[in-house]
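Support request, please re-run this one:
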Amino acid sequence: MADKAKLFRLILIGLIIISLALAAGVFVLFQQERAKALDLQTQLEDVKIKQQKAEAELTRSRKAVAQLEEKLREVQDKIDGLTVDLQKEKDAQKSLLSQIDQLTSDLTAVKEAKAVAEKKFTQAKDDLDKAQEQLKKITSQKTELEKNIETLESKSQSTPETKTSVGVELGKIVVSPDITAQAQAAQQAPAAVAQVKPAVEAKSMAHKLEGEILVINKEYNFAVINLGSNNGAEMGDVFSVYRNDKYLGDLKVEKVHDSMSAAGFVTSDLKDKLSEGDKAVLKNK
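Re-run finished. Output below.
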């Protein structure tokens, strides 16, 4: 009986020891788990803080993206506007090239007409020289004929005998049809000259024309002046070009329209001196 009680006590002590060991183990495990839980809580707080920072960064990034998209749209609008302006500029350039081609064609026609006019002018000058020479000859013959008539009249008034003889001599004087025509031409020539001279003097006394340079074409060596036939400009007129009262050179009109004229450079270096807006003044003719 005593042995059973001793055995029972031993078993009870063993169970108590085991319970204490288990309790100690559980306590240790609890402390470890608690420490892990606290560590996890700390890590979770860190994660939340990092998440908030990430969300704030994401929000800033989204705002930046929105701003970039807005700027991209503005840039695209500007590009579209520049594209439209570029197309307009191209169209204007095509129109200007077309006008230049037309002016070039007109200038070619003017040069051809100028060559024909110069040829006709040379022919007319030769004819005028011949006519002047013929007029001098006729005038000389007329003067000599008038002297002969005066001499014969003075002789006829001196004595009756002389008068009779003079009458015979006068009867022998024959004026050929050619000389008569030449005399008539000689009488008419001064009247024609008298009619032409006032017109030339009136033209030379005309007021000076003043305009400005509209276009300069260096490739085909001409400039366009804003003076035409309506203003009194004519083929062959020479205009002096000034900038701030400084003389630059001369232009010679080669083609005349109603409100503008095309003029060539008298000197080759003039095209590099002129600018649009320079003043053009008609030289005295």
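The beta strands are 210-217, 222-225, 238-243, 246-256, 261-265, 279-282. Confidence is low (pLDDT under 50) at residues 156-206.
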